[in-house]
Amino acid sequence: MKWGATLWIYCALIVFCALWGVTSALGNPYQILGVHQRASQPEIRKAYKQLVKEWHPDKSNDPNAEERFVEIKQAYELLSDPDRRQRYDIHGITEDDFYKKPNYAPLHTNHPFEDLFAQHGAHFNFQENDITFFHKLSITTRQYDKIVVPKSRKTPYLIFFYTDWCFQCIQTAPYCRKLVDYLEPLGVNFATVHSGREKNLGRRLSIHTLPCLVLLLDGDIFVYKETITSIQRIIEFIRNKMPYKLVTKVNSDDVDDFLNGWDDNRVRGLIFEPRSTIRLRYLVTAYHFRHRVAFAFVDSHELRSRYQVPHDMDTVLLFNENTSYPMASVSMKDIPTPTLQHIISSNQYLSLPRLSSQEVLESLCPEEWNKPRKKLCVLLVISSSHVFHPYRQSFMYFSQQSPYSVEKVRFVYVYYDKQPEFVNSLVPEGEIIQPLLRLVVLWRRDMSHVRYEWVPGKWDADKNFSDTTSALEKTITRLLKPSETLPNEASVKDLVDEHARGLMGRIYTRVIQFIETTYEGMTRDQILALFSILGTILFILGIGYFMAYLVRIEEESIQKHKAKTSNNNNDGINSSYQPELRLHEMRSESYNALVRLLKPGCRTIVLVLDMQSRQQLIPPFHKAVWPYRKNKTLMFSYIYIERGLKWYKELLQLSLPDDRDLNINPRNCVGTVLAINGHRKYFCVFHAKHMERKKKKKLKNGPTTTAATEFDCESGAFIGFNSDSSESDDSILLQGTLLDGFSNWLDRLFEGTTQRFHVNYWPEFPIK
């Protein structure tokens, strides 16, 4: 019993020492942050922010502040990752070991049937078809999400899906080896996935058959459906799936437009090859640097002579703002991809780059909390308007003549109209600073905190040294000293990506990618079934539309029959007649809409009546204007003379050539029709008893006829009607016959032969 108890004690001690050796590097992250083991993510984040402010080396005088700060940061990184936190809670593991390759290889390196076949004289090349080649390159789902997908933003990935007992997978092993040997030097990575152990990943990538090859570009999946035995077809597949217009084609006519397009904050690169098509190695390189460098393939002998490019060699030229000659070049028979990437990465920014995204800021102005190793960024704030281009040019000239090294000082500029939040965060509270054409020196201590100092004075567009340049040089020289620090501090948010697509563009791209991914992941049988379903749906929709068309035709036929029957009934109008055309009563509420606010070309036909004549005049008026009901320029109305007598009298007075007081009998006005043009300020008048008088012409060598001088309000002479005693009609008209000639008058109205009476303004309608 004693020996057993001693053995258990030793085992527990060994386990404790092992766990202590694992966790001693970091310690207990919960104790470091001062939170409970069941603390939520917001609580952990809050505790981390408080401790960082307290133990930052620039704010704390404790000699162990730097070690404590690193320890807090590592503890927060562990607890903010759910998987690492779970492993620590269960096993006490603090390191992140998901980068280690899974061990899928069998225990024996030789094939298990190699000795059996060798005894019978059969020799097979099991070494070439050995499936352990796939095991060595195998990745897990976590590695795919954490490593492969982020890296695919700059590096294309070919992913091969296989299983252990897949005969076709074994057959494709030698071709995959050749594919890896050919593509890896070009910058294309190759990985494998064991479908038996990573089933969820296979379902996510729509893998239906094995073996299967998948291309991953910026997180987008493209399934290769042809046989894997043809390397040339795989290369063409990769070329065709590269982003659209990744490398444009230029000649001597449009090369200047391409080189001068650096306003997008990208360096320009020209690729020369002795071939008519660009090779995959340059496409992969262009994909890797597509956010910083815009490439073009040159197919012009004139440009080769212009830049003195050898005809039998591959050449790459890089241009910045100065398009007259390249800032870097490389020319070889076959340019190795590492050499090409090294040259481009060393010259991937313009002479004066713009802070157009957070990625550019982190690359040009990296974070550094240590004062002796700090890197300063001199920032010029301008606008994207062309007016500010001379200021940018002069600042670029100053940066090129600057004696400071790029490792210590970087000159950049920013558009205030595109990054207002970032610039405004650099204005100290309580101070009034106009940021445009001002210089500010930045030092990024961490991801979100910067220290800064504004240079006094505005930047001058003149290239000559002025007071501002002298002040800037003194400020930089002073701040480069390890003992100096920048006076102001601010917390800034990430910069807006100026080159990101809009909402509609992102939606369109995602829809196209979804369609392509779905199509690539479908088999032939699935495509036929999909077309069958779509055909059935379209057939049903077509039948439904045809039936709806027949129903609509039947309804139109019924409506026409009803209208015809209604018109026949209108021939014998009786007292029970119900008008189908809407007539508006002219009142003070509707006066502006019917007269003053009429649009150009529109008119209102107004019938003058009283309460006693309403039942007798409305039906014939409605019948006369019925044919014009579909004319959108006409409105039909009626007015009670008892209510609008004042307005009617003032309207007639405005139409007279001289000012006279009119004595109007309201009963004689019943049956009058006014055609009012509110925009042109004139009206035409119809009355059955007083017909319009034609204008008399002036005879040659003869007297000129004059109009009647008598203005009888009741007879209509005041509006130009014939009032001669010889032509006057003393016959008595009944109310039912007042509108007998109204239809003919409407025809003459639309022909333009009726007399027009102009007014200077429309009188006010009385309010009752």
From TrEMBL:
Keyword Membrane appears in the UniProt entry: yes
Domain J: 28-92
Coiled coil start-end: none
SMART domains per the UniProt record, alphabetical: DnaJ (SM00271)
GO BP annotation list: autophagy
Membrane topology, record value: Single-pass type IV membrane protein
Transmembrane segments: 527-551
Secretion signal, residue range per the UniProt entry: 1-25
Compartments, as annotated in UniProt: Endoplasmic reticulum membrane
Stored InterPro entries: DnaJ_C16_autophagy_reg, DnaJ_domain, DnaJ_domain_CS, J_dom_sf, Thioredoxin-like_sf, Thioredoxin_domain
GO cellular component, one term: endoplasmic reticulum membrane
SUPFAM superfamilies, alphabetized: Chaperone J-domain (SSF46565), Thioredoxin-like (SSF52833)
Highest taxon, organism lineage: Eukaryota
Alphabetical keyword list: Autophagy, Membrane, Signal, Transmembrane, Transmembrane helix
Job description of the protein: Plays an important role in regulating the size of autophagosomes during the formation process.
Protein name per UniProt: DnaJ homolog subfamily C member 16
Biological source species: Psylliodes chrysocephalus
